[in-house]
Hints:
Elements: H1 25-35, E1 47-49, E2 58-61, E3 67-75, H2 82-99, E4 103-113, H3 119-135, E5 140-147, E6 152-161, E7 177-180, H4 186-195, H5 200-210, H6 215-223, E8 228-231, H7 236-248, E9 251-255, H8 265-270, H9 276-285, E10 289-291, H10 297-304, E11 312-316, H11 318-330, E12 336-342, E13 349-352
Helix pairs in contact: 2-3, 4-5
Amino acid sequence: MTTAAELPRLTTLSHGAGCACKLPLATLDRLMASVGQGLGGAADANLLVGAAEGDDAAVLRLDDQRALVLTTDFFTPIVDDARDWGRIAAANALSDVYAMGGRPLIALNLTAWPADLPVELLAEVLRGGAEVAAQAGCPVVGGHSIDDPEPKYGLAVVGLADPDRLLTIARARAGDRLVLTKPLGTGVVATAVKRGDPDPAAVAAAVAAMTTLNRDAAEAALAAGVEAATDVTGFGLLGHLHRMLRASGVAGQVDAARVPFLPGAAELAGAGFVSGGTRNNQAYLRDHVELEDGLPPVVATLLHDAQTSGGLLLSVAPERLGGLVGDLRDRGIEPAVVGRVLDGPAGRIGVRRLPPG
């Protein structure tokens, strides 16, 4: 029987880690342009959010009070601890429901597993996923598995939302403030785990962030009357902000000094632990983002860093900002007001080193 010491590290079994394995934004844009109306093309007045919107999840109205929220997400190992990987993947999949203003109802496992890895290790992954789903009040009731040389795990999730109180990427308005509910840096930490031996404290902080549900942040957003939101995952803060601004027909500005980073993230970015997903984000956004001269390269890297199970990015009207920030703090979340929405070319972002004095 294979002992734990003889097993390969999970992160060595995949070409990437976590949401950094997403197809690049440029590839997705070409894909969706080529598919056109072939995805969800049939007109349906009850389809409130579909493929064309490019939002975090699909939404189908059931009646005047209820809408189904449907999403799926899975990825390769992001840490070497099997249970932690399961917990992170589950929190990440559930996050898309919260990003739409929904409540997860039920989930199915999605699993790819190498035949030569012990099934007992997979059981640990599934236990971790079920543990976090249970925290969300969302039972995992089965799923699907395949034999695959590269391990992958995630969930398909069905949630419920009020059709008149959805959060979407297309409702940011000029004058809104941008609020981020988790610090950045999970991508550089995951890359360091895969390539080297990072500080255990940095890994622990990243795992704690990635396994924290976005439930409380979403509830606070709905209570404050927020209408525009997304979660920050593989396309990084700037990539997801670009998609929100583009969908809303507005531009934006980010104050880099106000963006929080995980402990140790800046040092790891400076040491070169940068994923391919992050480099793809930088390449795609080059024509959409203007970085102020003098912005430290490490900060620029982290603003593009491919996140996994990141926080919510909320676009909130100025008069609602104080109430939202206070409610988030009451729920144990330290929000960061990282910028604002502006009139301007759709999807354009300016990044300042420092906010105005």
